[in-house]
Amino acid sequence: MDTISQSGRSPQKALSLLRQIYKDLSSEGIEDAEIEAELILCYASGLSKMDIYKDNPDISENIIKTVTDMVKKRLSRVPLQYIVGEVEFMGLRIKVGPGVLIPRPETEIVVQEVIQIFKEGFLPSCPEILDIGTGSGCIGLSIARLIPSSHVIGVDISPQSIKYSNENKGLNKIKNFHTLRGNLFEPVKDKTFDLIVSNPPYVRTDEIASLQQEIALYEPRIALDGGRDGLDFYRTIIPQSIDHLLKGGFLVFEIGIGQFEDITGIAQRHGFTLFRVNEDFSSIKRVLIFRRL
Ligand code: GLN
């Protein structure tokens, strides 16, 4: 059967177009081709899934052209999130594009844990929070939204991150979040916080090439590469955080597979106590919370 680009651009019924997109994606080994085909058609047409399945409307040539371009990009392994330009994270709309890491579902656990610490009364009523390596701003923005009395600063060295995190702040109308550009603690030299959170790069350098092509080819290496053993940023952030955390303050990390013991060791050697560990949906220890007592 023809691929979309070969089948011309005459108007088509939604369901037959949907099947065509599915076939193009699945024949090239794209996982979740069914869901992705629906997302592509909904995004390009502005229709909901319900509209498509219930009414099976005609799809115009213009929309078919948009779909064709999207499928082409997807077949060259551009992540769907970059093509669509947006993801949902903790109920927020987060714009993403080349240069910022795509928020992962497990990173929502990091945010939920910070909220939990606040609800349990371990933080002051108007906590000062720092998000190191904020990327799209997803962690810092959702904490700011869920703790409206907090003030959150997101720091990132990358200009694209600052662009996206500011845009996402505006898009979600969040006032209590601010971004600063710079390396780790550099832009907050004289500031102290009640809680520091970070999802730093933690992939081992030699592992990056073997990740899914979508990640290895298109996501920013600067947001992934954690050095030879993946722990470079924990070794840097943990000792530096001491000067920026109030007594009783928290350090909350997302970590990679199998890094729990090493990172806990580093933190304990710097006087932190392990406060809590959380697993992700695959039972991998994913979120570590340390406290400075
Ligand atoms: N979770 C990302 C991945 O699996 C890595 C993100 C990071 O290094 N912080 O590719």
Structure write-up:
By secondary structure, this protein is of the alpha/beta class. It has 2 domains: 12-76, Helicase, Ruva Protein, domain 3, CATH 1.10.8; 99-292, Rossmann fold (3-Layer(aba) Sandwich), CATH 3.40.50.150. The chain has 11 helices and 11 strands. Strands 7-6-5-8-9-11-10 form a 7-stranded mixed β-sheet, with helices on both faces. It has a two-stranded antiparallel sheet with strand order 1-2. A two-stranded antiparallel sheet has the order 3-4. Helix 1 packs parallel to helix 4 and helix 2 runs antiparallel to helix 4. The longest helix has 15 residues, at 61-75. 41% of the residues are buried. It binds glutamine. Glutamine binds at residues 104, 199-203, 211, 215, 224. Glutamine (GLN) binds next to loops.
Structural topology:
Elements: E1 12-13, H1 14-27, H2 33-45, H3 49-55, E2 58-59, H4 61-75, H5 80-84, E3 86-89, E4 92-95, H6 107-119, E5 128-132, H7 138-146, E6 151-156, H8 159-171, E7 177-181, E8 193-198, H9 213-218, H10 232-241, E9 245-254, H11 260-269, E10 272-279, E11 285-292
Parallel strand pairs: 5-6, 5-8, 6-7, 8-9
Antiparallel strand pairs: 1-2, 3-4, 9-11, 10-11
Helix pairs in contact: 1-2, 1-4, 2-4, 6-7
The chain binds glutamine.
Residues 104, 199-203, 211, 215, 224 line the site of glutamine.
Sum up the structure in keywords:
alpha/beta; two-stranded antiparallel sheet; 11 helices; binds glutamine
